[in-house]
């Protein structure tokens, strides 16, 4: 218990608990099974997207193409099934491979050419969006396999099937970053790339690996999004960017690299989802939504800060 | 002597026969562009409409150009660039009903007419006309249809598009008006805006259903993607009690009407908007015609130069034929357009 | 004493190289596009390009001044739209004269920026988070107050300014404003103590603090300046569009605000910026976009070519720099 209270994400957890209580009072339907299902469903993709950015932040990089790569993967995924009748069990690994390749492009360009990762991923984001729109002309692919749609809509009680993805990915990612030597090297590079290089890890390779991982996660997010929406929409990923940064950072991941918090990122996604869910439940005037979102970010961070205030000795 | 009179006679015959051909297929070498405000499946028919207009009316070129994102600067940039490339007329869906006006004025100054298609610019505007669905009137009609389907009483929610779009404000007002007219029998529980995008819409609409499914008796969806998402959501929870009136004809919406999750959908006429728009713009750009000041304009809250492009209520029985009905509507409007709205030399 | 901490000069030769690279690429692209379509260099096209370039440059400056101190400002667009709506309100509803309305609106911009800076300096919270929250707060407050209603009955002089051409040529006065601000910023960073101390803060905050630089005050000043510049960009947009609209700014400004400075050589970690580079960077993006449009590159594929061109341009620049060993660049 002590450990939980001391963790840097305790503030977030407190916000979630407080927020949930407030919402339950304001709208009894908040506690209904269906609402929990809706809430959980809305975080599945977001958690993966947050991870996708988090792994690049870990090495001190940024991936501005997270949404664009997701969108492109989504339509290629949907397109190969609708147009070329590729079966679902084959389409998923192909889509994920596409994501990794996209990440590889980002990583190699960022690591080998010396161009700032910011510019690289900005340019590739534009390129991926171009491919996306060029192939679809803004028209979605509607005929997705029933199995996929059932996966996207199905649930056991309040738990959506989609939740399997973050439930599986989170511990695996934690294992990778915190236990496996290769993952720990990634974090080392982010923390201090010169020291890391001295201990025998090539920062360049770490950057490539991080970007590939980011692409991998973005692709998973894309496949989930297609399942959730029931169609391959070209606009998938278009609003991923801000969330992909906000969640990890609010959750405690260092912007400069070297330190990530998986639990923090998950909790941050939950807080944001709770806010958005709550605003609809509480029938907030649409004009107030944005303002309250900002106020709640302030409250969450303040809570965290207050909790972490230095204790004066003597 | 003979040859000359023969030639003269042939020329006279040729000259006489031109009016008989109805003046059609007089080729112009104008380049016209139809440009939406950004990528959106609603405008997909514009591409075919542009190609058909070019063929049927003998226009030099009619192209469908799309800005890569829903940002006003991108549309403005696109139009300005096309103008430098020699395009002579534009039919646009305004990226912003107010913001695009200064560009339209600039283009007018360069002798390039601009018409608003599918959505109107707000007066004062230099757009030569607005050929679209009337957002206020249509929403009002849709709400009335919903209230009727609900038996005249109950609670409704309104799902709509971008909060910063003036069309959205008009729609909200229209729903309110229809509700007020029931003298309290129908209540508007909530308006959820910014739902015209898949992911955001999915989240908000599902949250709404989770919160108030049992108190809602009717839903009205007044935006394209919104309607699609709501149709899917209702199907996913298997609800046929809630009456739902949707907008546009995406596959999910049509399926919902067919299977009883939606009572009806109101379909617009995107093909007609681009087709007839290009036709009119070509005539204006060549200087052959002007819009009549005293034409039977409709005055909407946005503009005084509105021409209705038509809206069709598609109930389950009309599913099979509605596409033909819309086509008929287009042909109908096009054949009467010149005579009704234009002054030609 | 503070001079010992300030060494932006050491990087100057490299930057000159980078800026020269950008100029070369711009010239090459210009030639390419003109050869494909003479309309590219037409007076009309240059005029409209110059106008949107002016706005992008000032948006870039707004972000640049914060990057200099090692932070970032995600509320650039939100402050912009608040200034726009206040300015419009003062002009149209209150009836103030245009210059006074603008001045007062800019005060708001500076004030909102100051709020950001003060919060960051006093609380120590990452500027990313603070400005993320404030972006939502400012935009949200604006929506609540204005109910998303645009103001399009502004005094005629506003739109007229947007349409004006200097000497009847292709230069818009808005471009002149942007360049003037650029010159002022160059002087600020090179010759004023405040400017140089701001850069020192970004380069190494602790070292700067220990050398006597009032780090907190510099951060606050940078954010306030950023707010004013965001306001200027907003007002320029009002002139261009002829109306005060709530749809201006917001998230749309985020990427352009980073693009110009970073392409121009600014360090994302702070401590180094290039005013000229920012302007050239913005010009590069504008040129590529306009050129692609003018070449009639298929509609939907535009962004793909934009991305590829951007990469090619930056690669070209990098390898130019790599060829001279003195200016070799370490990976960012």
Number of strands of chain A: 2
The percentage of residues in β strands of chain A lies in under 5%
Summarize the largest interface: chains and residue counts: A-C, 50 and 48 residues
State the distance separating the first and last CA atoms of chain B.
Answer: 35 Å
Write down the overall mean pLDDT of chain A.
Answer: 87
Largest sheet, spatial ordering of strands of chain B:
2-1-3-4-5-12
Helix-strand layout with pairing:
The complex is a heterotrimer of chains A (314), B (345) and C (332).
Chain A (H helix, E strand, L loop, with lengths): L1 H5 L3 H17 L6 H26 L7 H17 L5 H25 L4 H20 L9 H8 L1 E2 L2 E2 L3 H16 L1 H11 L1 H6 L4 H27 L10 H11 L11 H20 L7 H19 L7
Antiparallel strand pairs in A: 1-2
Helix pairs in contact in A: 2-13, 2-14, 3-8, 3-11, 3-12, 3-13, 4-5, 4-6, 4-11, 5-6, 5-11, 7-11, 8-9, 9-11, 12-13, 13-14
Chain B lengths: L1 H19 L10 E5 L8 H14 L3 E4 L7 H13 L4 E4 L8 H9 L4 E4 L12 E3 L2 H15 L4 E6 L6 H15 L5 E7 L5 H15 L5 E4 L2 H13 L6 E5 L3 H9 L4 E4 L2 H16 L3 E3 L14 E3 L3 E3 L7 H20 E3 L1
Parallel strand pairs in B: 1-2, 1-3, 3-4, 4-5, 5-12, 6-7, 6-8, 8-9, 9-10
Antiparallel strand pairs in B: 10-13, 11-14
Helix pairs in contact in B: 2-10, 5-6, 7-8, 8-9, 10-11
Chain C lengths: L1 H4 L6 H25 L6 H26 L7 H19 L3 H26 L3 H20 L9 H8 L9 H19 L1 H11 L1 H6 L4 H27 L12 H10 L11 H20 L7 H22 L9
Helix pairs in contact in C: 2-13, 2-14, 3-8, 3-11, 3-12, 3-13, 4-5, 4-6, 4-11, 5-6, 5-11, 7-11, 8-9, 9-11, 12-13, 13-14
